[in-house]
Amino acid sequence: MLLIEKKIDNLKVYVYENRKYMGKEAAKKAAEIINNAISKKGEANVIFAAAPSQTDLLEALISENVDWTKVNAFQQDEYLDLDPEHPAGFGNFLRRHIYDKLPFKSCHFLYCRPEQAEAKCQEYAELLKKIPPDMIFLGVGENGHIAFNDPQVADFNDPKDVKIVELDQVCRNQQVNDGCFESIDQVPTHALTLTLSFIMRVPQAITVVPTSLKAKAVARALHGEISEECPASILRRHASAELYLDKESAREAFNL
């Protein structure tokens, strides 16, 4: 059930009774965008977010009527210095939840060894120039990050498309809160991420944010200053972005 539909600056915001409805409606819109891209140019290029916040969306997306053999899939961020088989690795998350369940045309990964990180950033940036994305899925972190652009490394005018970042304490704690790691000492300190300047150039963005843990960040993103202090606030300037919330994540932004 849709509770609220509102536009804040450029950003369309939808609030649903629960995260199941949220995921289903976001998937429906995503399928429409993907199918339009396939219709226009024969394929669609989609960047996926890897986080527990995305599971409802991904589960619903699998059931949508899309010719996945015409979809190229990318990930937006990945830990550095994590065992390649670790289940919390974002590429592994995407394999479990969607990549291995659908016949994608291609799937592209960001994983690399730490000594390869700089080269991987350049290689991935070049790949995205050759296969420019039509749409990106995003989440919002407890500190307001999108992808791994935490406040201290966020740059709305970043000269890079892909970069190495140091994760802040709030971000690393979130990975424990999400159940991805047992303790913060297990969470990597660095990662690769698409930058905010790159994300803002992707033609369509669908952001999915459930649970009360994200309520403060959502309120800041929607009603606070547009600033790197809350990186997700920049979505209000995106040319075509939509934000899907459940009642819990929207409660502080809309007094629910």
UniProtKB/TrEMBL annotation:
| Entry GO MF terms | glucosamine-6-phosphate deaminase activity; identical protein binding
Respond yes or no to whether keyword Glycoprotein is given for this record: no
GO terms for biological process? Answer: carbohydrate metabolic process; glucosamine catabolic process; N-acetylglucosamine catabolic process; N-acetylneuraminate catabolic process
Q: Where are the transmembrane segments?
A: none
Q: Which CDD domains match?
A: GlcN6P_deaminase
> Could you tell me the keywords of this UniProt record?
Carbohydrate metabolism
Origin: domain of life: Bacteria
Q: Please provide, in alphabetical order, the Gene Ontology terms of the cellular component aspect for this entry.
A: cytoplasm
Domain spans labelled Glucosamine/galactosamine-6-phosphate isomerase: 19-238
- The protein's name is Glucosamine-6-phosphate deaminase
